[in-house]
Design goal:
This protein is of the alpha+beta class and 406 residues long. The chain has 6 helices and 24 strands. The chain is globular and about 60 Å long. It starts with a helix and ends in a 12-residue tail after the last strand. The relative contact order is 0.18.
Length: 406
């Protein structure tokens, strides 16, 4: 092992050099937000005992087999928010290039994982994983040999193997799934669609610029969503939904990239320029994408803390777009990301991913007076919209799940 580590480090440094030679300016880095870890880590014994004492009667039991040539399998089970789900698994898989079989916990993460795009990059190849709800927007979680958790949302339960369609395994996992009704009074309604929210009206929108801008003041992306909630809750919502915070400084980006990659976390440096609202650059940048593949395509957004609140609640103002490729920057003839002109799709993507966390209490779509329905960005691209602004009220009573312990 000691002989292989220098080789891995040298290979990684060569990889960094290749990235550094890319003609696009590197101004940001995907990093893990250690302050608010997502509650998708392997469930601890403490988690399991807590769930067992707080769950109600057993509602259903199901056993199924998952073969190594499958990616995702629909269990046919619709779970409800607040229900306890206990999944246990046995069996082994074998990959053609693996030295030994792996169980439901998957193979140990190796250096090649920097180049793989797995459904759940926090776990090794071959791990048993799951998700609840829409596959396109719900965040996968590790099941492993045992997962005992309370579902934060309602939706269809799917299980799968953490692998790519071009890298399938031989073997079978056998699963047993138990679903328990919520303890009395524990069921809760999340992401409830509402027609109005107190304080969200045209008088509020008179204080909010309709568009963000670059440093020179050239108008850019449209403000298309608002969040109501504390800073800690806002961060937990994004990290739980699988969004990753972007470093604002390139030097810090390189340092984080080096440390994270040597820790076998597969993140990739990607640019996110500073744009302005209320005379200052974004307070947070978030990206939702996978390593390597994100160079040309990714979901990303910027948010600013408003200099005023709404009925005592902190207001966050955001602009979200979907990068779909590259185009010429008409300001300087450089290369910049091209956004999907139908920016309502990205607004809806933000709604779906954040609503899947169980932290969003209420969802509203507000159409302000004289709505923004189309314009050009600061780089010369164009966009169009129905003019509605998404408003999400977050649950400030949310507490992140405890970190996993052995």
């Amino acid at each position: 092992m000691n002989v292989r580590k220098p080789t891995r480090i040298i290979f990684f440094l060569i990889f960094l050099l290749a990235v550094a030679l890319h003609p696009m300016q590197l101004v940001a880095q995907l990093v893990r937000d250690s302050a608010a870890p997502p509650p998708t880590a392997a469930v601890t014994k403490q988690d399991a005992s807590t769930n067992q004492t707080s769950s109600g009667k057993l509602r259903l039991t199901q056993e199924l087999q998952l073969t190594g040539d499958q990616l995702w399998s629909d269990t046919g089970i619709d779970v409800q928010a607040g229900e306890r789900v206990l999944i246990t698994a046995t069996g082994t898989l074998r990959y053609a290039d693996a030295q030994e079989d792996n169980g439901p916990e998957g193979n140990p993460r190796g250096f090649k994982d920097l180049l793989r795009i797995l459904p759940f990059n926090d776990a090794g190849r071959g791990a048993l994983i799951g998700h609840v709800g829409d596959a396109a927007t719900s965040e996968p979680f590790l099941i492993g040999a045992r997962r005992d958790t309370v579902s934060p949302i309602s939706g269809r339960l799917s299980v799968g193997i953490n692998q790519t369609k071009d890298d399938l395994a031989d073997g079978t996992f056998t699963l047993r799934i138990e679903v328990y009704a919520p303890a009395k009074g524990a069921a809760h309604v999340v992401a409830r669609q509402v027609a109005s929210l107190s304080g969200i009206d045209n008088s509020l929108f008179k204080k909010i610029p309709r568009r963000i801008s670059d440093k020179a003041g050239d108008p850019g992306d449209m403000v298309n969503f608002l969040l109501l909630g504390s800073e800690a809750t806002m961060q937990s919502t994004f990290t739980t939904a699988g969004w990753v915070k972007v470093d604002p400084d390139v030097k810090e980006a390189v340092l984080h990239g080096l440390l994270e990659s040597l820790s076998k976390e597969s993140y990739l440096t990607m640019p996110m320029s500073q744009l302005y609202l209320f005379g200052r650059p974004q307070d947070y940048g978030w990206a939702h994408a996978e390593p390597i593949a994100v160079v040309a395509s990714r979901n990303h957004l910027r948010i600013w803390k408003a200099p005023f609140d709404v009925n005592g609640q902190t207001l966050w103002i955001g602009a979200a777009t979907h990068d779909i490729g590259f185009e010429r920057d008409q300001r300087n003839n450089g290369v910049t990301h091209k956004i999907d002109p139908d920016i309502d799709l990205e607004r809806d993507y933000v709604e779906k991913t954040l609503s899947s966390t169980g932290i969003v209490l209420e969802v509203m779509h507000f159409l302000p007076d004289s709505p923004m329905k189309g314009a050009k960005t600061a780089t010369g691209g164009s966009f169009h919209s129905n003019g509605q602004v998404l408003v999400l009220r977050l649950d400030d009573s949310f507490k992140p799940a405890p970190a996993a312990t052995n």
